[in-house]
Amino acid sequence: MFEGSGPGAQTLDGCSVELYRRLPYLGELGPVRHFLPAGASVLELGCGTGRHTRTLLRWGLRPTAVDNSPEMLAELPAGAIPVSSAIETLALRERFDIALLASCLINHPSSHARSSYVAAASNHLKPGAQFLIERHDPQWLQGVEVGVIANAGSVVVSLESVNRVPPLVEMKLRYSVAGQEWTQSFVAAPLAEREIEVLLSEHGFHSFSWHGSARRWIATTFGHQNVAKPERSGR
């Protein structure tokens, strides 16, 4: 399902460390910026080389950055707390103000993996904490065609192949920069808003709100929802 090629080390899910080191931050956290106040502790699940981590530090947050690739963690900026672990098996004593699952990891083709990611967040959040999740735009997954699809700074991103086998989408991306090339093949599950909300509800989350022009981000609250009791009429 997941593989990659190109110069440098490759992670288990086909990500090239050298490529991700070169990819710039492109404002991905902008739609949920108001959920990320200075001073808050953040559990960043699947941090990679720290593209988002650097932004969190610049905004004054306190990130604990989790990844299962030592080569990715070696690229993290000073100030972040690195944790070498798969998301599914994460077991920390600390509880956090915010959990962040970016880079469309929620679109993993395995429903078990998706549930494990959400469980990892719920196991590490304080009551009332926020969980921020980025998904693929399902319409984009269903409609994107072969060809150049993006420019990430100096990196040209092309879709080399796509195969839709409902309910999954198989894709192969090619990244080109300064005469070097990397590929990444993966499978993604297009997820509707309701599917994600149901999954979150099963793990104790509530109060869902969607953000961004394509509604790719969801923010949700962990813990029991306060329900106002009806006032008792006096006699």
Relevant terms:
five-stranded antiparallel beta sheet; 235 residues; disordered C terminus; seven-stranded mixed beta sheet; alpha/beta; Rossmann fold; 12 strands
Would you give an account of this structure?
The longest helix is centred in the middle third of the chain and has 12 residues, at 111-122. Strand 3 (62-67), helix 3 and strand 4 (81-84) form a beta-alpha-beta unit. The radius of gyration is 19 Å and the shape is globular. Helix content is 19%, strand content 35%. The protein has helices at residues 17-22, 51-58, 70-73, 111-122, 138-143, 193-201, and strands at 3-5, 41-45, 62-67, 81-84, 96-101, 125-134, 147-152, 155-165, 168-177, 180-188, 205-211, 217-222. It has a 7-stranded mixed sheet, sandwiched between helices. It has a 5-stranded antiparallel sheet with strand order 1-10-9-8-7, with no helix packed on it. It starts with a strand and ends in a 13-residue tail after the last strand. It has a domain at 15-138 and 191-222: Vaccinia Virus protein VP39 (Rossmann fold, 3-Layer(aba) Sandwich), CATH 3.40.50. It contains 6 helices and 12 strands. It is an alpha/beta fold and 235 residues long.
Question: Can I get a quick summary?
Answer:
The protein is α/β, with parallel strands linked by helices. The chain is 19% helix and 35% strand.
Tell me the β content. 35-45%
Strands side by side in the biggest sheet: 4-3-2-5-6-12-11
Secondary-structure-derived class: alpha/beta
Q: Would you tell me which CATH topology of the domain at 15-138 and 191-222 applies?
A: Rossmann fold
* H and E string: EHEHEHEEHEHEEEEHEE
Shape: globular
The number of helical elements comes to 6
Average pLDDT? 94
CATH class categorisation of the domain at 15-138 and 191-222:
Alpha Beta
Q: Give the biggest sheet.
A: 7 strands, mixed
Question: Which architecture of the domain at 15-138 and 191-222 does the CATH hierarchy give at level 2?
Answer: 3-Layer(aba) Sandwich
- Spatial separation of the terminal alpha carbons: 68 Å
- Poorly predicted tracts of residues: 227-235
CATH superfamily of the domain at 15-138 and 191-222: Vaccinia Virus protein VP39
